[in-house]
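Worked example 3 (structure in, sequence out).
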């Protein structure tokens, strides 16, 4: 008979979730990874493991980031006593947990080694009867369905038997909770309780300098590129106070929204800051109401933005002319107004709804395109794609070589309205420069090549009239003009420079050569005609 007594080991807020890997597979997370430095021993620790799982479950090892920064796990490994290694990758957020499922830990005893990219042992634990030279100090063996946990994730005495305890409550990828099994021994005459050492609750403390000692108890912030603005209700039926903004986690791990911000258009309402830990689960939702945030979404046009703790807008959407009672929702085909609002649930589009394009936010209104278009940029993860401007469009996994469309080769003068959203390329001669536009011409006419303001590395001084160039970009209509919008400075390449002697006018006077020449010629002809008339009148008759 097994009874339970509970003692809680308080641990930092959870910001990671399990990630399943097979040996030598790569584990990826959505945590932003800073350049790695030499890892200190104990920066990451083995915090919990299950070697003898319940029927149908798998063995696993949990690790915890005990440092004050994100740990780059590139080329790290988890190694067992048999020599079997699991290669890790990605990043482990500070104060975060990560779980790796295994299939070969011995029930009676084994050793688990956590090594960094230099093969340095960062942490290790031997349990049961594994002979590491001192079996007496090994961690205990858990019975089926129980786990072995590190009692204090911020301390390592070097004695596994002191640092690890068996718990009846498994806390996979979350703060350890120590529930010590109490075994009742039947002596025949009566039952007596076996003595089990008492457990003192320990609050982990992340090492900090004196400069940040005042904030050492604050939860760690987490960065992720998997969060998106997913649905908004800017003009509800009745009371406008019922407006809301929904955030969706497209990733495979939970994300802590602590210190993230929700906002409308820049200069509008005061941004709302999430001041308490708020976990949004993998493929989960978080809904923020106007009553909670005090953010007012305008009924004519506005935007909704999600801003990370560093002040970067990671997702945003513009809208105009909202429909009363309808939400503006994100779908794989783009943003559309939907009569069926689905706060904290998967978006649904009524069958009768007509397609409507949305406008991802950008530096200026001139750069806001429609979402419709062919794939122009492949994001980091194969399950996410985007057009040249769409922030993020969820799609089924695809094979890059097979599914990416070929760039369409067009004549400069043949860019047409039916090409909007398509990725095109062309070659021609530079015939004009105006602001952030360059006009490229061939024998069919000319096309405007536009460089958005975010392409700050474009050196327009390098482009001279008469230069031959090739341009690639996405066709976009702005007002009445069709443009080919470059995605990067590399989309515009000079293939042949014009000779210096051919530069008759400054680059600041493009395409004025023709009419200036004719004007001068006309003035000269008029002057010659007047001179001839004057001379004729002076001749004797």
């Amino acid at each position: 008979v097994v009874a339970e007594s509970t003692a809680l080991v308080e641990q930092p807020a959870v910001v990671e979730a399990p990630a399943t890997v097979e040996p030598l597979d790569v584990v990826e997370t959505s945590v932003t990874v800073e350049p790695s430095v030499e890892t200190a021993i104990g920066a990451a620790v083995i915090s919990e493991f299950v070697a003898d799982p319940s029927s149908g479950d798998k063995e696993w090892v949990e690790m915890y980031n005990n440092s004050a920064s994100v740990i780059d796990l590139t080329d790290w490994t988890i190694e067992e006593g048999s020599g079997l290694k699991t290669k890790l990758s990605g990043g482990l957020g500070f104060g975060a947990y990560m779980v790796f499922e295994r299939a070969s830990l011995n029930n009676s005893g084994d050793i688990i080694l956590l090594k960094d990219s230099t093969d340095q042992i960062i942490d290790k634990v031997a349990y049961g009867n594994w002979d590491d030279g001192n079996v007496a100090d090994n961690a205990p063996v858990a019975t089926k369905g129980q786990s072995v946990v590190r009692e204090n994730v911020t301390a390592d005495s070097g004695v596994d038997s002191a640092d690890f305890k068996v718990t009846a409550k498994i806390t996979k990828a979350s703060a350890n909770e120590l529930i010590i099994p109490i075994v009742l021994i039947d002596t025949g005459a009566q039952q007596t309780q076996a003595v089990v050492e008492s457990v003192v609750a320990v609050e982990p403390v992340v090492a900090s300098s004196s400069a940040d000692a005042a904030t050492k108890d604050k939860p760690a912030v987490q960065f992720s590129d998997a969060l998106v603005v997913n649905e908004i209700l800017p003009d509800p039926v009745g009371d406008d106070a019922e407006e809301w903004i929904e955030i969706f986690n497209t990733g495979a791990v939970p994300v802590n929204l602590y210190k993230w911000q929700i906002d409308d258009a820049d200069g509008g309402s005061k941004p709302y800051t999430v001041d308490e830990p708020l976990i949004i689960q993998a493929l989960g939702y978080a809904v923020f109401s106007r009553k909670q945030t005090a953010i007012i979404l305008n009924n004519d046009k506005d935007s909704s933005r999600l801003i990370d703790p560093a002040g970067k807008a990671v997702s945003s959407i513009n809208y105009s002319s909202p429909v009363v009672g309808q939400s503006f929702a994100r779908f794989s085909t783009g943003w559309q107004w939907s009569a069926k609002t689905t706060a904290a649930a998967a978006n649904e589009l009524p069958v009768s709804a007509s397609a409507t394009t949305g406008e991802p936010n950008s530096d200026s209104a001139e750069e806001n395109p429609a979402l419709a278009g062919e794939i122009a940029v492949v994001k980091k993860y194969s399950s996410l794609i985007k057009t040249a401007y769409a922030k993020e469009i969820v799609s089924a996994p695809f094979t890059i070589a097979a599914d990416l469309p070929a760039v369409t080769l067009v004549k400069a003068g043949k860019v047409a309205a039916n090409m909007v959203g398509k990725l095109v390329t062309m070659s021609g001669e530079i015939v004009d420069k105006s602001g952030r536009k360059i006009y490229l011409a061939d024998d069919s006419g000319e096309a405007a090549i536009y460089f958005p303001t975010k392409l700050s590395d474009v050196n327009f001084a390098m482009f001279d009239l008469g230069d031959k160039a090739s341009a690639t970009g996405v066709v976009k209509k702005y007002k009445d003009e069709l443009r080919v919008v470059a995605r990067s400075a590399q989309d515009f390449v000079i293939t042949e420079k014009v000779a210096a002697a051919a530069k008759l006018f400054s680059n600041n006077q493009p395409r004025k050569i023709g009419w200036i020449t004719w004007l001068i010629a006309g003035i000269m002809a008029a002057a010659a005609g007047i001179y001839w008339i004057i001379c004729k009148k002076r001749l004797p008759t």
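Notes: The first helix runs from residue 160 to 163. The chain has a mean pLDDT of 75.
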